[in-house]
Design goal:
24% strand, 229 residues, Rossmann fold, alpha/beta
């Protein structure tokens, strides 16, 4: 499947693959039990919605590859345990995270939405440079809505590193087709652009170091010439 980004990129979903020769990028889905993390991941991997899922008892990891322009990204999708206490007491879940996707259910403000800050703080404690996405799931349950979009926008704007917020539904195929495409594209683009930025910064740092060495060498050469005359 090929996704055409309106601005710059061509993105192709390659599929469930793993290569030891590629760098892996860790993307975790976190949030309270029952918000639909597993269902979203299932749709993200280009599969149909399933009404019945066995609860994720510990950590479920899936490997997918996405090609953006000429670079293949290997993404490890971590589905956190439905047992919130277990997940929160497992620091390795939150280490070396490229992107953390906070998921809440729009029909559950008291538990799933109000606990987002706990999940956010756990990620930033162990992976301070990670990017954060915010997803409100189950917006097919509009009549049972407890969390407004304004509530979610307020939470997003509270933190500079929450890059993206949108609502979706892992059940409603008419809605999910666009938003899951959007999610996958934004995961790939965010990782790709961050890597490019880091590469540019490293390149600038190397060029700056070389310039300083040349400058010192030139100054030292001038001093020696002056002493000889």
């Amino acid at each position: 499947m090929i996704y055409e980004d309106n601005s710059k990129y061509k993105i192709e979903y390659i599929g469930e693959k793993f290569s030891k020769d590629l760098i892996s990028y860790k993307v975790i889905f976190i949030g309270r039990y029952g918000v639909g993390k597993t269902s979203i991941i299932h749709k993200l991997m280009n599969k149909d919605f399933e009404k019945e899922y066995a609860p994720t008892m510990s950590i479920d990891i899936k490997n997918i590859q996405v090609k953006i322009d000429d670079k293949i990204l290997q993404i490890n999708i971590w589905d956190s345990c439905g047992n919130d206490k277990f997940a929160l007491s497992t620091p390795n879940l939150f280490k070396n995270v490229s992107i953390a996707i906070l998921v809440y259910a729009i029909d559950d403000k008291e538990k799933s939405f109000n606990e987002l800050e706990i999940w956010y703080n756990m990620v930033k404690e162990h992976s301070k440079d990670s990017m954060i996405f915010l997803i409100g799931n189950k917006n097919d349950l509009e009549k049972k809505r407890e969390v407004s979009k304004e509530d979610a926008e307020t939470f997003k704007n509270k933190y500079d590193d929450i890059k993206i917020f949108f609502e979706t539904s892992a059940l409603d195929n008419n809605n999910i087709s666009n938003n899951i495409d959007k999610l996958l594209k934004n995961i790939a683009i965010s990782i790709y652009e961050k890597d490019k930025k880091l590469e540019n910064e490293e390149d600038k740092a190397i060029r700056h170091t070389i310039a300083l060495v040349k400058e010192d060498f030139t100054k030292e050469g001038k001093k020696k010439k002056k002493g000889c005359c």
